[in-house]
């Protein structure tokens, strides 16, 4: 069987080793377009993809042998899940591999803003501490505390829960979360109260976003949302860029609708060096590095490849983003569909 590796990012030796040890033929090409992906993976049984180019319906329909699409990390918003399910193609990810890193990064962005770390460092390096101490007075006035505040979390899955554990140590008066899919019984375990979106926006002093990107939450944080938020509020986004409307955020930060924001993700990545967002002194941006660490890189790469090997051997993957595909595959097997011919049935594997 054959696996295509189309990511434009560096592919680690661990990925190649896992695939080679499984006896898979490897076609590796950094792909910039959908046509390049189709050409590279035209006879592949599995494909390892990155965020771009999109793994669209067009791509999936053009790959008749494809059985599994593997995304590195957690997000699968670049893959057409509905099309994959209809075609009987598994879409796999690696939940939990970078939960700690992303929750830590969200906390770090928030602390950088509340404690004005970048600004203070800049002033110290410029000599203001010793020569122009008056320049530091304005920064002191912008520093704030988390203790006694209301912290809001948008999305209460694994990363949102991990963030709640970290923020609790800073003494907020209460932690609230908006997540239509999370039960209060789970939130109770973390001392968090679930609320609707309006309450999250109007009551929170700090909001951290930890939800997957869907069509229903694209630009969830837009002009209307910012108008509801406190003028002293701080927004953190380490989830997906399009959840926040970049133009509306620029307006909100420029006009004082909210006080500050910290982003690890933006609508278009990489961010254009000429983007007006980069001119805002009350916006801190990092380059989609929240999930990065030596551990998450090594383990994530390993699981990225292992998902392909597991599915092709009838074993449960680390994560299956479209679980309904299992039923679709069962129907295809009954009708002797060629896509899954000769592949062991993963439903027979313990733990799936």
The CATH topology assignment of the largest domain is Rossmann fold
**SSE pattern, N- to C-terminal:** EHEHEHEHEHHHHEHEHEHEHEHEEHH
Tell me about the biggest sheet?
A: 7 strands, parallel
Radius of gyration, taken over Cα atoms and rounded to an integer in Å:
23 Å
Placed side by side, the strands forming the largest sheet appear as 8-7-6-9-10-11-12
Helix/strand/pairing category: alpha/beta
At CATH level 2, the architecture of the largest domain is 3-Layer(aba) Sandwich
CATH top level of the largest domain is: Alpha Beta
The total strand number stands at 12
**Which parts are unreliable, with pLDDT below 50 for 5 consecutive residues or more?**
none
Number of helices: 15
Number of domains: 2
> What's the helical proportion of residues?
25-40%
Descriptive account of the structure:
The protein is of the alpha/beta class. It has 2 domains: 2-97 and 294-348, Rossmann fold, CATH 3.40.50.720; 99-285, Rossmann fold (3-Layer(aba) Sandwich), CATH 3.40.50.720. It contains 15 helices and 12 strands. A 7-stranded parallel beta sheet has the order 8-7-6-9-10-11-12, with helices on both faces. A 5-stranded parallel beta sheet has the order 2-1-3-4-5, sandwiched between helices. Helix 1 (13-21) packs parallel to helix 14 (294-312) and helix 5 (99-114) crosses helix 9. The longest helix is centred in the last third of the chain and has 19 residues, at 294-312. It is elongated. The two termini are 23 Å apart. The mean pLDDT is 95.
